[in-house]
Amino acid sequence: MNVAVLISGRGSNLEAILEKEKQKELGNAVVSLVVSNIPDAKGLEIAKRYGKKTIVLPPHRNQNRETYDKQLAETLEKNNIDLVVLAGFMRILSPFFVNKFSNKIINIHPSLLPSFPGINAQKQALDYGAKITGCTVHFVDEKVDHGPIILQEVVLVDDSDTEETLAKKILEKEHILLPKAIRLFSEGKLIVEGRKVRIVN
Ligand code: GAR
């Protein structure tokens, strides 16, 4: 099963996935492509270090979302991609793209959705005074940070937490959760029923 990991930055989630693949803990999934919309994304170096094919797809000036997404979809289809993993990919996907890869796109978000969607989720949780937060892996639908939830993990917020310390604690859980979701998907163990995802044995 061919997986494309889409990134925009640091790529620590990408690295966690590639490490699990190396340890043969990614089920039937093979990361066959890493795509970045940002040319100097740090994660591209990680992909190369693991010998992965990389493609940089920066949006052209004034290019509308759907035109970009058509190009992205073509790239993924050319590479026979079965699962699209958003690992810190900071672009909103158009309904065109989401429908083309319906229930085949998963995203990791650093909060317990539906709380704190959008950017700076860790800061949102701190500012709100939440006592717990965490991370969510979910299928992507037409709304931002909204689709059916696959897995979630809780992180406790301490009084002494800063945005940085909280992000670090959440990231540790992300690195476990995202590869796990990919493995479950690759083994056909995720059954989507409306908003709910049933995990079968
Ligand atoms: C991760 O914390 C991920 O959850 C977040 O971006 C970071 C990427 O880190 N994604 C979002 O906020 C999406 N809404 P990484 O590049 O080191 O994997």
From TrEMBL:
The record's GO molecular-function terms, alphabetically, read: phosphoribosylglycinamide formyltransferase activity
Q: Which CDD domains match?
A: FMT_core_GART
Give the species this sequence originates from.
Candidatus Heimdallarchaeum aukensis
Keyword Transferase on this protein?
Answer: yes
Pathway the protein acts in: Purine metabolism; IMP biosynthesis via de novo pathway; N(2)-formyl-N(1)-(5-phospho-D-ribosyl)glycinamide from N(1)-(5-phospho-D-ribosyl)glycinamide (10-formyl THF route): step 1/1
Q: Which reaction does it catalyse?
A: N(1)-(5-phospho-beta-D-ribosyl)glycinamide + (6R)-10-formyltetrahydrofolate = N(2)-formyl-N(1)-(5-phospho-beta-D-ribosyl)glycinamide + (6S)-5,6,7,8-tetrahydrofolate + H(+)
Entry-linked Pfam families: Formyl_trans_N
Protein's name in the database: phosphoribosylglycinamide formyltransferase 1
Record-level GO BP terms? 'de novo' IMP biosynthetic process
